[in-house]
Design brief:
Elements (H helix, E strand, L loop, with lengths): L13 H17 L9 H5 L8 E5 L5 H10 L2 E7 L3 E6 L10 E3 L23 E2 L14 H4 L23 E12 L12 H24 L4 E13 L11 H13 L5 H16 L3 E2 L1 E5 L16 E3 L4 E5 L10 H12 L18 E2 L4 E2 L34 H6 L17 E6 L3 E5 L4 E10 L20 E8 L5 E3 L10 E8 L5 E11 L9 E8 L12 H4 L2 E5 L7 E6 L5 E8 L4 E8 L5 E6 L12 E9 L2 E9 L2
Parallel strand pairs: 2-7, 5-10, 6-7, 6-8, 6-9, 9-11, 15-21
Antiparallel strand pairs: 1-3, 1-4, 2-3, 10-11, 12-13, 14-16, 16-19, 17-18, 17-20, 20-21, 22-23, 23-26, 24-25, 24-27, 27-28
Helix pairs in contact: 1-7, 5-8, 6-7
C-alpha cells in the first residue's frame, strides 16, 4: 500500500538530494489526503522515565533551531519526533517553556516489565561486517559544508561523508524508512497500515528513551531526532528475500528519497547525510522497517532477522520479531542502534565472528564481555567479571563497560568527564613572525580549530578520521601580556569546529613584541598554552622603554606552536644579534631526544621546526615533551604536547 506517488529527481548531486529529502519531510508527515504516519496521542502515552516531559511545538523554522530553543531554555531533548513532539528532561535551571511550546505530558505511562535473561536472537548473528565504504567526491569536512549548507552546530569537525556514526555522543538523526512491495515481482503479502507505522515509531521512541536514560545516568549528552519518511515502493517483498538479496529491495526503496539510482550503501549514506545536515545533527542512522505482522516465524528466508551494518549507515527491524515473546521491538531498536556506533555483540551464535579478542570503536576497545568463541573464554573461571548487557542477554536497561567503551564512552584520564568532551582548541597563525615599520598596522591572519582525539578504530578500511563535536566559541589575542582582545571569525559567526580569522593589529611600538593567541571551544575549554608569534617593529627611534637597547637582547623570548600538535611544532627564538644558542628536547623521562645548534642572524630571530621524529628518525610517541634553550646566561623552556 503506497502513500501517494513516488517523488523522483534526476540529479545525483548532494544539493538535489538535500532538497528532495526536505520536500519529502514536508509531504511525508503532513501531506493533504495522506494517512498520518503516526498518532500524536499514542506517542504522548509512550512509557518514559518520570522526569521526562512531553512537549509539543507550533513554532516555524528548522528542526535544529527548535531543539536549540528548548535546550537554551534549560531542557535537554532526549527524543524528538519531528516536526512537533519532543520528549524533554528539565535541567536544574529550566524555567518556563519558550514561546511556541506547550506541555502535553499525560499521566505517567506504565513502564514495560523488565525482560528476563534470554537470547533474543536464538543463536543467530545480527551484526553484519562493516560496509565497504563508497568513494565520494566530498571534502573532509562533511556533506553539509559541501552542499553549501551552514547550520548552527554543523557537522562534526573532521568527519567525512561516510562518518555517520563514529561515537554515541551528541545529536543523532534517525530517518525511518518504510519499504512496501507493489507485487510487480514478488507476491505482495504485507502492506503498511497507519497503525503498523505508528507502532514502529512508538517502538523507536521507547528504544531511544531507554538509551537517553542510560546516557543521562552517565552524564553523556545524547539526543535522537526522528523523521518519518513516506512509504517507498519496491517490486520485492522484503521479508521474503534473504540478506544476500537485500540490496534489491533496499535500492528501490531508497531511490525516490535520494533522487537517483545507486547501490544501497551509497544511497543509505546519502539519506543519512541529508538528514543530519538538515537537522544540524552530529550523526545519522537509517532505520529500515520491514512489514511482516502475520509472518509465522518472523525471520527472513535465511533465518536472519533484525540486523545492522556495523558502523552504519543502516539497520533493519521487523514489525514482528520471531522472539517477540521475550524481547519487544523497542529492545531490538535499542540493540541495533548500538551496532551503528561500532559496538560488537557478546552472545554466542553459530555464525558469530565477534570474538572477545576483537577491538572496535573510536578508541579500539576490546570486546571483553563476549562469550565468543566459547563462554568464559575471556574471563575464564572468574565469573564475577561477566556482566549483564543488552549486547549479551536480554537486559534492555543494562549497559556493560565493554559496550560503553566501544561506543566512545571512555574516560582514560579519570576526570569523571568523557575524553571526547574534553577536547581543546588551538590557534595557528599564518606566520609566527611579523615585521613592519613604525606606525603601520599589521594584518594578522590565522585559524582556530578544535583538536580531535585520534580515531584508532581498526575496522576503518582507511585511516580513521579524527573527529570532534565541539566548535570554536571564541578567539582572543594580546600583546606583551596585556589585556585579551576578542576577534570575530571571517564569516561572522562561531558555529564550526574550525574558524578563520583576520584582524588589524595597531603598531605596538619599536622593538620585538610577543603576540599571543587564545581560543575557547563550545565545551568551555581553553588552550592549555596560548599560541604565539613575534612582532618586530623597525624604525629610527629608540624602542619602547626609551633605553635604546634591544629588549630581546636583554630578555630573550622563546615561542612554540601549535601546542598541542598532531604534526610538526614550530619554534622561534628572539635574542641578541649574532649570538648562539643550544636547544634540546627532552621526554618525560629526562632523555634528550632531539637537539639543535642555533645562530641568531642580524634580525635577532631564528626559527626552526621539530617534525615529531626522534634523533634516529623514528616517529616520537604522543605525549608531553620539554624544550630547553640556553643562550648566554639565559635558560628558557617550553612545554610541547604531541598528539598521535
Amino acid at each position: 500500500m503506497q502513500e501517494g506517488s513516488a517523488v523522483r529527481f534526476a540529479s545525483s548531486s548532494f544539493g538535489r538530494s538535500f532538497r528532495c529529502a526536505a520536500l519529502i519531510l514536508a509531504c511525508g508527515t503532513a501531506r493533504a489526503g495522506a494517512a498520518p504516519a503516526w498518532s500524536g496521542e499514542s506517542l504522548r502515552s509512550v512509557a518514559r522515565a518520570p522526569e521526562v516531559r512531553v512537549v509539543t511545538s507550533s513554532r516555524a523554522g528548522s528542526p535544529g533551531a527548535t531543539v536549540d530553543a528548548l535546550e537554551h531554555a534549560g531542557y535537554h531533548v532526549d527524543v524528538a519526533v519531528l516536526p512537533d513532539i519532543f520528549f524533554v528532561r528539565p535541567g536544574t535551571h529550566a524555567a518556563g517553556l519558550p514561546p511556541g511550546f506547550a506541555d502535553a505530558t499525560p499521566p505517567a505511562a506504565a513502564r514495560a516489565p523488565a525482560e528476563t535473561p534470554f537470547d533474543p536472537f536464538e543463536g543467530r548473528a545480527d551484526a553484519l561486517p562493516p560496509a565497504i565504504r563508497p568513494s565520494r567526491a566530498l571534502g573532509a569536512r562533511g556533506a553539509g559544508r559541501a552542499a553549501g549548507i551552514r547550520l548552527p552546530g554543523g557537522l562534526p569537525y573532521g568527519a567525512r561523508w561516510t562518518d555517520t556514526s563514529e561515537f554515541m555522543v551528541g545529536r543523532v538523526a534517525v530517518p525511518i524508512l518504510f519499504p512496501d512491495s507493489d507485487g510487480s515481482i514478488d507476491v505482495n503479502r504485507y502492506d503498511w497500515t497507519p497503525a503498523l507505522r505508528d507502532s514502529v515509531v512508538r517502538s523507536a521512541v521507547r528504544g531511544f528513551l531507554k538509551w537517553t536514560a542510560i546516557a543521562s545516568a552517565h552524564g553523556v549528552p545524547l539526543t535522537f531526532l526522528v523523521e518519518v519518511e513516506p512509504i517507498s515502493p519496491t517490486r520485492y517483498e522484503p521479508i521474503d528475500r534473504t540478506i544476500a538479496d537485500e540490496d534489491l529491495w533496499l535500492e528501490e526503496a531508497l531511490e525516490p528519497l535520494v533522487g537517483y539510482q545507486g547501490d544501497a550503501v551509497t544511497m543509505a549514506y546519502e539519506l543519512a547525510n541529508a538528514a543530519r545536515a538538515r537537522l544540524g545533527a552530529h550523526w545519522a542512522a537509517v532505520l529500515v522497517a520491514v512489514q511482516n505482522d502475520t509472518d509465522p516465524d518472523g525471520s527472513f528466508p535465511d533465518g536472519l532477522r533484525e540486523h545492522a551494518v556495523l558502523g552504519g549507515p543502516y539497520f533493519v527491524i521487523t514489525v514482528k520479531p520471531s522472539n517477540a515473546a521475550s524481547a519487544s521491538v523497542d529492545y531490538y531498536i535499542e540493540h541495533e542502534m548500538t551496532h551503528m556506533f561500532w559496538a560488537l555483540d557478546e552472545y554466542p551464535a553459530g555464525n558469530a565472528w565477534w570474538s572477545c579478542t576483537l577491538r572496535t570503536g573510536y578508541f579500539a576497545q576490546p570486546n571483553t564481555n563476549s562469550d565468543v568463541p566459547i563462554p568464559a573464554y575471556c574471563y575464564g573461571a572468574n565469573q564475577s567479571l561477566r556482566r549483564h548487557c543488552f549486547m549479551k542477554d536480554n537486559y534492555p536497561d543494562s549497559l556493560c563497560a565493554a559496550t560503553a567503551r566501544q561506543i566512545g564512552w571512555v574516560d582514560l584520564d579519570q576526570t569523571g568527564v568523557l575524553d571526547l568532551l574534553e577536547t581543546r582548541p588551538t590557534v595557528r597563525p599564518d606566520s609566527v613572525q611579523f615585521a613592519g615599520g613604525l606606525g603601520a598596522p599589521f594584518t594578522i591572519r590565522g585559524a582556530a580549530a578544535d583538536e580531535a582525539l585520534p580515531n584508532t578504530n581498526p575496522y576503518e578500511f582507511e585511516a580513521g578520521d579524527s573527529i570532534t563535536i565541539a566548535t570554536v566559541d571564541s578567539i582572543l589575542y594580546r600583546v606583551d601580556g596585556g589585556p585579551w582582545t576578542s576577534v570575530n571569525p571571517d564569516d561572522g559567526i562561531f558555529d564550526q569546529g574550525s574558524e578563520r580569522f583576520t584582524f588589524l593589529l595597531p603598531s605596538p611600538g619599536l622593538g620585538n613584541h610577543l603576540l599571543e593567541f587564545q581560543a575557547r571551544n563550545s565545551s568551555g575549554r581553553n588552550m592549555l598554552i596560548p599560541a604565539s608569534a613575534l612582532v618586530t617593529v623597525a624604525g629610527g627611534a629608540a624602542p619602547i622603554g626609551g633605553s635604546g637597547t634591544d629588549d630581546a637582547a636583554i630578555h630573550p623570548r622563546l615561542h612554540a606552536g601549535p601546542v598541542p600538535s598532531s604534526g610538526g611544532v614550530r619554534f622561534s627564538l628572539a635574542g641578541r644579534r649574532g649570538s648562539s644558542a643550544r636547544a634540546r628536547l627532552y621526554d618525560v623521562a629526562g632523555r634528550v631526544i632531539r637537539s639543535w645548534s642555533l645562530a641568531l642572524p642580524a634580525s635577532g630571530v631564528v626559527d626552526w621546526e621539530w617534525d615529531g621524529r626522534l634523533s634516529g628518525g623514528e616517529p616520537g610517541a604522543g605525549g608531553l615533551y620539554f624544550l630547553v634553550v640556553e643562550t648566554g646566561p639565559h635558560r628558557l623552556n617550553r612545554r610541547v604536547v604531541l598528539l598521535r
